[in-house]
Amino acid sequence: xxxxxxxxxxxxxxxxxxxxxxxxxxxxxxxxxxxxxxxxxxxxxxxxxxxxxxxxxxxxxxxxxxxxxxxxxxxxxxxxxxxxxxxxxxxxxxxxxxxxxxxxxxxxxxxxxxxxxxxxxxxxxxxxxxxxxxxxxxxxxxxxxxxxxxxxxxxxxxxxxxxx
Length: 164
Known about the structure:
This protein is of the alpha+beta class. Helix content is 21%, strand content 30%. It has a domain at 14-115: Gcn5-related N-acetyltransferase (GNAT) (Aminopeptidase), CATH 3.40.630. The two termini are 29 Å apart.
């Protein structure tokens, strides 16, 4: 196990881990930049919300042994399209590739789920929007709008799914 005092780097291994009573505080202290707060809920809110939604699957994003973010999925095996409900990377760790690698790990998980043929996501519009991030991963707009957010889709059977 790596030394926890070692600084993380772009080469750090990205894993998705369950949140427990020992780690929840650290995950709740992670935060996006001020200009991004309109696009993603605080982790404490997301974790509370997940505990009241039976289809929520959520994990902390780690780079080596350091928590760097949070990810949540609407995991409904009755539906062929799964939904990336939340993704946040702490402002200190953005632009390091951790979000991209976390989404790829999520895609690997979704591929193991019953009936999975696509991963959906939606996002708000404006300065700081994650639109380019999702497009780079291979998501394309569906033309749908959900609660004021633009919906994007990543087919899981696509040859280029997951981006380069």
